[in-house]
Amino acid sequence: MNSVRRPVICMMLIAFAALSACGSSSTSPSGLAVDGRNTEISQERETIWDAFGPDNSDVEVRVNKYLWAASLEVLDFLPVQSVDPFSGVIVTGYGTPPGSGRSYRAAVYIRDPALDARSLNVAMQTRGGGAVSEGTIRAVEDAILTRARQLRIADGKL
Question: Which domains does the chain have, with CATH numbers?
Answer without folding.
Answer: 2-44 (no CATH), 65-155 (3.30.530)
